[in-house]
Structures are given as C-alpha cells and as structure tokens.
Design brief:
Largest sheet: 6 strands, mixed
Mean pLDDT: 80
Low-confidence stretches: 6-19
Number of helices: 2
Helix content: 10-25%
Strand order of the largest sheet: 1-3-4-5-6-2
Radius of gyration: 14 Å
Distance between the termini: 34 Å
Order of helices and strands: EEEEEEHH
Number of strands: 6
Strand content: 25-35%
Length: 116
C-alpha cells in the first residue's frame, strides 16, 4: 500500500462530484493513475477540486478524479507538467467566467508556476 502526504490546505468532504466538461477541456491524454512505489505528494488543488498537482518519484503530474478512481496526465519534469496543469486550470477558470461565475483564486495561475 502506498502512503499519501498532503501539503495542501485541509478540505471539507465533498458531497458532489467536481464538475467536469471534457468538451471544453484542453486535449491531454488521461490514463489511470498508477503509483510507482514512491511517496505521492499532492501540494496544490485547483478550483472546485477538479485537478490536483502531484509529484512522485521525481516526476510531476496532474490528477483528476473520475468516479471511484484517479487519472493522470502530463507526467514529466516540473515545467512541462506544470504547463499542462496551467492549461487545464485556465480552461476551467474560463468555463466559470463564461457562465458569469467567480472562480476560486488559484495561486499557480497568478504566478504561472513560478516559485517565490
């Protein structure tokens, strides 16, 4: 069994599945998440809890929950995986704005993934 270390803020249990509209989502290949035996770290969660920024075994990736499992995309080095996260999070934010909603602030989008 693998361990999960969470560095993000504590979240209230969700009663509704996060919204997903794959027609407006940028086209990235999603595949079932499979642990590589290292410690999984989730350090950031996007608006609505739709995407999670994770790292494991020296690689970074984006996770999303689909039903009772997780899928991943963008597994790779920091910058390339972060570009995938930013594209997905920006598209999700645009969906909110197109409906006249105010999305939750996303610190990665503010900084565009730059540290410090």
């Amino acid at each position: 069994m693998w361990r999960v270390q969470t560095m993000a803020r504590a979240r209230q249990p969700k009663t509704v599945e996060p919204e997903q509209n794959e027609q407006e989502e940028p086209a990235f290949p999603w595949e079932p998440y499979r642990t590589v035996g290292s410690l999984l770290r989730i350090s950031h969660t996007s608006c609505c809890g739709l995407y999670e920024w994770g790292s494991e075994g020296g690689l970074f990736f984006v996770l999303r929950r689909t039903g009772d499992r997780y899928e991943e995309t963008g597994r790779g080095l920091y910058r390339s995986a972060l570009d995938v996260y930013i594209a997905l999070a920006e598209a999700h934010q645009d969906q909110h704005l197109s409906r006249g909603e105010t999305p939750e602030p996303d610190t990665f989008l503010k900084r565009k993934g730059r540290r410090g």
